[in-house]
Design goal:
11 helices, two-stranded antiparallel ribbon, mainly alpha, two-stranded antiparallel sheet, globular, 398 residues
Length: 398
């Protein structure tokens, strides 16, 4: 890789670029398939950027991380995010005492709140770094224009995750709680760092301009973290209905009051008000806090402290709050909605769509930068517009 290229200095982070082929250096005459400067079979006037760019991109991202973690700006943002998270946790832990004056905040309550917020804050941090790490590619960097910022953002975000994990382990020891929950929260935070880093870099690539990229990135992050839950709450009146129910028999309930199994008779019990939450709970599944709750509930360490909340979420996802609605029984072997896996699937699907959109945007920019007709139009020549993914140029208004 050589010296790290920076802005005015060889040791300034946040300005990664692969080696520029236009810089002075040894020249080798191209031979064989590369002699023409174009990929064989390419008829769209765009120079080929194919090649082994993955390895150099990883090295560039690692070099970016190495120089970034030695800067004051990086630690200011990282420690500032951790401090903001601690303030929110402290405020929420003291909230019950300030409302009724009876509840006393406990270290265990603060620990559980920190576990819930950790993945969400990690998602915001990853989105920030994903947008900040993207730079307009130059020359042969086109093929690596997304790989470098995504991996650079992931590496930076994992530093924040490691810092919070260490704080959670100390907090768990002081509160007498299980450290296994901190490990689960850290795993979810790492997954969120990977997904939201890809979203942030992709949004920045599609937006092009820093201001628009930041606005769109934060909109996506806020909607996934809290917007889905808020939308689900707002839609509750829309899924309210009056449903016929029958008399339930052989009802089995968990210690927290949720229904495990029941049989339904043919005797009608009239109608009752019910909320068909199974129709809208997929919106809340995209929240990192919901993903953590559902994954933590599967661990033995999480059943006692977080089991009630996760079981209520699962009950809402299955729509079994009221037994024997329309005479439908519930068995112990019934299939439950995988809320945690659904949340990761929604996030991963959105990340994939954004990455694909960023690749298309990069492809169109390369056409505009390297095709003579488009360059002439940008300089005041005849206006042209690109064709639909076929490399053709048609005259017409922009």
């Amino acid at each position: 890789m050589g010296a790290y290229p920076g802005k005015g200095s060889p040791h300034v982070a946040d300005d990664w670029h692969l080696p520029d082929p236009q810089l002075p250096g040894p020249y080798f005459e191209p031979i064989g398939q590369d002699a023409g400067g174009l990929q064989p079979g390419g008829d769209d006037g765009v120079e080929s950027t194919a090649g082994p760019v993955f390895g150099p991109a990883i090295r560039a991202a690692a070099l970016d991380w190495w120089w970034t973690v030695r800067t004051l700006r990086f630690w200011s943002f990282t420690l500032g995010s951790a401090l903001a998270m601690a303030i929110v946790v402290g405020t929420l832990a003291l909230l019950p005492r300030s409302t009724d004056g009876a509840a006393e905040p406990t270290p265990a309550a603060a620990y559980l709140l920190a576990l819930l917020l950790f993945p969400a804050v990690s998602a915001f941090v990853a989105m920030h770094w994903g947008v900040a790490c993207w730079r307009p590619p130059r020359g042969q960097e086109q093929a690596a224009s997304l790989v470098i910022p995504i991996f650079a953002s992931i590496m930076r975000s994992l530093v924040f995750a490691a810092l919070i994990l260490a704080a959670l382990l100390i907090q768990a020891a002081m509160a007498g709680q299980s450290a296994a929950l901190a490990a689960v929260s850290a795993v979810v935070a790492a997954m969120e760092a990977i997904l939201f880093s890809g979203m942030g870099a992709s949004v920045a690539s599609m937006a092009g301009k820093r201001g628009w990229a930041a606005a769109l990135g934060w909109f996506v992050a806020i909607f996934l973290v809290a917007g889905g839950v808020g939308t689900c709450i707002l839609l509750l009146p829309a899924v309210r209905s009056e449903e016929p129910v029958t008399v339930a028999m052989n009802v089995q309930q968990a210690p927290d009051g949720t229904f495990l199994a029941y049989e339904c008779s043919t005797v009608s019990a009239g109608t009752t008000e019910t909320y068909r939450t199974e129709r809208i709970m997929w919106l809340a599944a995209s929240s990192p806090a919901v993903v953590f709750l559902m994954l933590a509930a599967e661990q033995d360490a999480g059943r006692e402290s977080l089991g009630w909340l996760s079981s209520r979420l699962q009950e809402a996802a299955d729509g079994t709050q009221v037994p024997c609605v329309n005479g439908v029984p519930l068995g112990r072997e019934a299939t439950h909605t995988p809320l945690g896996a659904a949340g990761l699937l929604i996030q991963g699907g959105l990340a994939g769509v954004l990455v694909a959109g960023a690749r298309v945007a990069s492809w169109r920019r390369r056409l505009g930068q390297r095709n003579p007709a488009v360059r002439d139009a940008a300089a005041g020549g005849p206006a042209v517009r690109p064709g639909r993914f076929d490399g053709l140029r048609r005259p017409g208004p922009m």
